[in-house]
Design goal:
globular, 4 helices
């Protein structure tokens, strides 16, 4: 079975970034890194799973793409607050969180027959 190498790579990067965020949280007074770390570590193995599922289902591939955007906005906003003292842009974190919820709903929707497993090619 083929895998989506992009999702595997992102899973590895999200895992590494999660560990780095935990390390930063241990040396920081800000609470954002402690919030970021588990979110990244939760999504790391999810992307490893999506690397297989994304090749079988268009809906799960789309859900993975939405999750990527959600993580970039949500995590990006929190990192920006720690490093720059300011938001990424107004409502970046709520937008990212909403995209994360939507992405997981799209992945869950692959269970329905209408979104049956078909090659996303």
């Amino acid at each position: 079975m083929e895998i989506n190498r992009g999702f595997v790579g992102l899973g590895g990067l999200f895992g590494a970034a999660g560990i780095a965020a935990y390390a930063a949280a241990a040396h920081s007074t800000s609470g954002h890194m402690a919030t970021i770390a588990p979110i990244l570590l939760i999504h790391a193995p999810a992307f490893l799973s999506l690397s297989l599922l994304g090749k079988l289902s268009r809906a799960s591939y789309l859900g993975g793409l939405i999750l990527i955007l959600g993580l970039l906005f949500f995590i990006g906003d929190l990192v920006s607050r720690d490093l720059n003292g300011d938001r990424l842009f107004a409502f970046a974190a709520p937008l990212g969180g909403s995209l994360l919820i939507l992405g997981w709903i799209v992945v869950a929707a692959t269970v329905f027959k209408a979104l049956d497993f078909k090659s996303p090619r």
